[in-house]
Amino acid sequence: MPLRWSPATYPVIFSVLTAVQKSRKLVLCRDFMAGSHPERERPHDEVWWERELNRNEKLMDKYMAAFGEDPDKFKHPRDLYNKVHFGIEPPEYPDEEGDADAEAQAESEPAEAEVSDAEKKLDQIFDDAEKAESAGDDAAVSEALDAAFKMGDDYDDPTDNDPPDNEDYPAIAKLALKFAVKVMRVENIPEEAEVLYLSAGKVGSNLAGGHGLGYEDDSICGNIVKCRWALADCEFCREMLGHLHQRTGNVRFEEMRRDAQELSGAIRDRITRLRKRVWW
Prior knowledge:
mainly alpha, single chain
């Protein structure tokens, strides 16, 4: 079967490749929620982090829902904030505001061009892999994914000094990426099982989100919670793939079920390793 690098596949891949960078830039999730409490001796535990991360997820859903109604009417971040938190509709800005927005957008064009270059490079990687697979090269998909994952490594901040607790992350992240793309390439999945696509992509995204939160005392439990969420999605995929194999007899579902089982084991080991760091 030729590779099916549909537009729906790209968000899964880019979410895994870029979630670490986004998480490290958006330190709001860690610093704002943890706050500044000099008198607090014990860092927050998993219970606290799970509650706050769930609250953050719900808040982001509200922001996306409000923004999706009419993106053009939100000219300033405060407009979206006021809409979500207070139900205040954004004001009608004069044309001068629109001109200022146009100038700001023009200033941001170099950054957008950089993203576009990365997308073009990724497209080329997948095009080459598809041609190689058509020619009978069974290793083409794996090589393409290795190259795509290396792109993420190339964008890592060279000033980051990850602790030994992170030594397993590159390998487990690559496993999650390959698993997600394998699932995305499957055709003719029953309609009621299409949630499998979403869950497969969330495994790598949650792992990357936890890695981005970090390994310090004030954030490691948040990292663990994100790993637990990744494990839950992976286990859902494993069970769903097992059911699909029983229903259809398709050996590909059984192969992917074993992949999910291997990935689940790696995530469990990671959670155990991270929890050994928690002294409180």
